[in-house]
Design a protein that fits this description.
By secondary structure, the chain is an alpha+beta fold. The chain has two domains: about 100 residues, Ribosomal Protein L22, Chain A (Alpha-Beta Complex); about 110 residues, Ribosomal Protein L22, Chain A, CATH 3.90.470. It contains six helices and ten strands; from the N terminus they run βαααβββββαααββββ. The longest helix has 26 residues. Bound molecules: coenzyme A.
């Protein structure tokens, strides 16, 4: 087992992780056999940062798909930037400026997966009012300034992972205060929905997830199994 996500997702989910690769270096060195030309087309003209993050995500995703005997599949995206995996697969992609991960599962068992990664150093106290509900702000106040940054990053990352999880099902937009996250001591968190999205994502519904802290980064994951 390598990487962080195997620590927080069920063992039958496939995880691939990598430091961010340089797209131009891969292309110029001829080591581009893992890059699909249809994906290259999608990012021509984008910033170097975007190209590197996008291509690392796609390479990780194709490495993960190999475990399911799916080869050379281009992962395009729809008008909402949602990655389009093969129809038998559910998955989620996350990247920071330095690290990338993909988690995939088979759709006969998994209805949706949402993952996220955030650097604690990127969190600023001036973001709290935008990201947090009143309950979350009260929760943060119990901690020292340094602990607040870590807890706020978990809240933020959990909300981003939940957004990715729900969007694959509802295709609906959510704002940060539309959900409230409770961080529990055993590396778990619970997301409560303050908005009605559909029959499964109803007002006050709760969704459990797991987080992990390492190397000043927060890793979060949620999944929903088929009923
Ligand atoms: C989509 C979003 C969640 C991405 O999160 P991020 O921390 O900015 O970026 P990450 O690197 O973690 O994730 C990016 C990946 O998410 C995936 N993604 C993008 N849009 C998505 C969507 N609508 N649904 C599911 N996954 C999505 C993509 O794979 C993307 O990588 P790619 O473009 O290279 O394929 C965020 O940009 C966003 O739009 N948020 C909406 C507001 C919000 O977060 N609300 C939370 C309230 S609950």
């Amino acid at each position: 087992m390598t990487g962080y996500f195997p620590l927080i997702v069920p063992p039958d989910l496939i995880c691939e992780e990598s430091p961010i690769m340089s797209y131009s270096t891969l292309m110029e060195s001829g080591c581009n056999n893992e890059i699909h030309p249809k994906e290259s087309d999608l990012i021509s003209g984008e910033s170097t940062k975007r190209q590197n993050e996008f291509i690392t995500g796609r390479i990780c995703a194709r490495r993960a798909l190999k475990n399911l005997q799916i080869y050379n599949f281009p992962i395009l995206f729809n008008e909402h930037k949602l990655p389009l995996f093969p129809s038998t697969v559910k998955g989620s992609i996350a990247h920071t400026s330095s690290y990338c991960a993909v988690v995939l599962g088979l759709n006969f068992k998994y209805k949706s997966i949402g993952i996220d990664i955030e650097h604690i150093s990127k969190m600023k106290s001036r973001y709290f009012n935008t990201l947090c509900t009143n309950e979350e702000l009260l929760f943060l106040k119990k901690y020292s300034e340094q602990e607040q940054m870590e807890k706020a990053t978990i809240l933020f990352s959990a909300k981003e992972a939940f957004y990715k999880l729900q969007f694959q099902i509802t295709q609906k937009m959510l704002f940060f205060k539309d959900v409230c996250c409770s961080i529990l001591d055993d590396n778990t968190f619970s997301i409560r929905l303050y908005k009605q999205l559909d029959k499964q994502f109803y007002y006050n519904a709760t969704f459990a997830g797991l987080y992990y802290i390492s190397n000043e980064m927060i890793f979060t994951a949620l999944h929903l199994e088929v009923d």
